[in-house]
DNA sequence: GGTTAAGCGAGACGGTACGTCTGGTCTTGTT
DNA sequence: AACAAGACCAGACGTACCGTCTCGCTTAACC
């Protein structure tokens, strides 16, 4: 979100013009940080639906225009807040590779489950998921900066396992990763059950059962 | 949703009173139908975020109070509208049982994918999923009336297959069903890829690979 | 201002339509009174330039929309407030007619000067004069409801004096009235000097000097 | 208005300091002229109420601070703009003295009426009158630089006539001048009627009727 | 002639109020 | 009593300006 100084504006002074884009170099870093911090606090306190730009501005000690100047929506604010504030690239930074695929995946999914049980993480992440479900443009951004990164880590670990002959050569690694994250995501977002280790362990086992060489 | 005239009001005629519950027998069926119809139309036209009670009332030719009297939220209206308007019990009415588990699941998931590609179905369903993600109470209702029903159909079909010895006896049928619906749900809600038959077929195959007896 | 239920809207449901006009019979009298009262208080406290609709609404315990629904501008609110609150038809209700024209005019102008020295009267009246100077539409309304009424009273008294032969038959009564009010108005609005009895008495004498029969 | 580098700052280099007064010798004359020009243009286009400092700055191609540095308010800008741009000392430069008082006054008032019928003159003058009505400090400045000058010219001409025995010796010349300008001002500012020659001629005659010696 | 301190164009900033929109409640008159 | 209609209090929306505050840049004035 925030500002990408891409080459999309053809002339600027032309006829179409429209919204005047601000100069990112003059941006007040202190205000920006205060806004992101306030967003995370407030979404945790009142939830996404009752999160308002006015409240963020007031909490951050900032004019509303300073938010509207730099972000197109409150979801975009949250996305910046989340990616900068704590979620450093998705559920985990990297899937460990001890050689034991099952153990590695169990460990990561357990850690992820724990993370999603932390309200400070859960509230903004859920807010972003909800916003993304309603706005394709935001969803793209959200996926590119959070979800896809996480998926890629699973794919990488699975590829390593495939190279080691621990899983069949014909498996679709992307699909396999989705089989790990999909049930997890659904259970979490729709609150279809507790995100405990029993569930994640069983999920890992069930998925791996379909990936192992037929011997 | 709508109104369950349960025995929760202890005194009613007391001092504090509170919410007067209306008499369902005097309800105007024509208004109710118009409200549900208008909800479905509007959510398809403007999406859930910009769906307003005022617009529903205006479109239905109904007073706002008639909506507030019978439903606690616009999501509840939509839920009634959806379960009565078209989604006759979730994605499908029943999983066929031809004896060929893979073929049956492929058929059902293909049909479901087609259904979720129909905007008239997709818009209100997505709206409900989004509302459910933000409101646990609503999510419960939503699951009870839509998702759980669907899941149960998969579980039933899988049980039949297990009884026929086509899948191992130790598999967790609920988890197996989640492995079918989870990736599907995630791909759909977060728009992580096209909901085509290639995807659903591959998903069915991948899940079944983990369920088959080891022989 | 407020609402004139004239027959100007031809069809309403037609193509032009536009602003939906509210139903004056359903108007909340208590809210209306509170708004007018608050307007008078606030214009006295902070002046017209810093008088805001928001502050009026807050002071009156009323939603902003209730003001915007019934009045087109804060000046219109003030005009209603002023004509109903205290200014009972302009500077004075009637010019006395004791037979002594000079004495009568002196008395009225002295009373008017006193009135314009009362901040509770002065603040809203000045606000209206200022608003009228900037908005011809409002000025028309203001004149019709306040200034013209006052002028007419002078004209009536002067006509009585003319009929009694106390002033020449060829004098333009309207102009004569303007010669009384014009210098007064200018001195007051532009603060060109004190509005004391010395001034008003001198003004009356100077004007009458030009009206008397030449003998 | 603008800046009077008077000796009001006691210490300047003190601790509290406060308002830094800028150095008038380093002032950019081109910017100053552009600001005054833009003010006059804009007040004619949108009126005083919707005249904004930002718009003046933008039209003049000038930073906002350059306006705030040299003028305390938009009214002060307008006052400078007006006194420099065209109204060179009020309605007229001098009242002619042909010996015929009535003819001289009629000529001046006719010219003044014509001037006040010119939008390029009327718009900023009305703006200043309005601003002055709301701000006593500004009104003082306005009077000193425009109105008083005009009044003094009338007084001078009347004094000349009095010395020539054309009007009585006991008349209050200041009041007489106000009887000419007051009705004119009121009619113009409150738009109580057309500012045509018929009006001004009648006004001159009516006033002079009260000034002539009783013979 | 190089340094330095202002004025300057530009515009980001913390604020306030705008006029609009919608939420959810209350009131009125009709069916 | 439910209903259509819509006025009401409340408060967030996104915009427009306010007046202040940096930023670099230009332009004297004084070394």
TrEMBL record, chains A, B, C, D:
The HTH tetR-type domain is annotated at: 29-89
**Any Pfam family matching the protein:** TetR_C_11
DNA-binding feature ranges? 52-71
- Matches recorded under PROSITE patterns: HTH_TETR_2
Q: Does the keyword Ion transport apply?
A: no
Keywords (alphabetical) are: DNA-binding, Transcription, Transcription regulation
For the keyword DNA-binding, the answer is yes
Listed name of the protein:
TetR/AcrR family transcriptional regulator
Organism the protein comes from = Streptomyces lonarensis
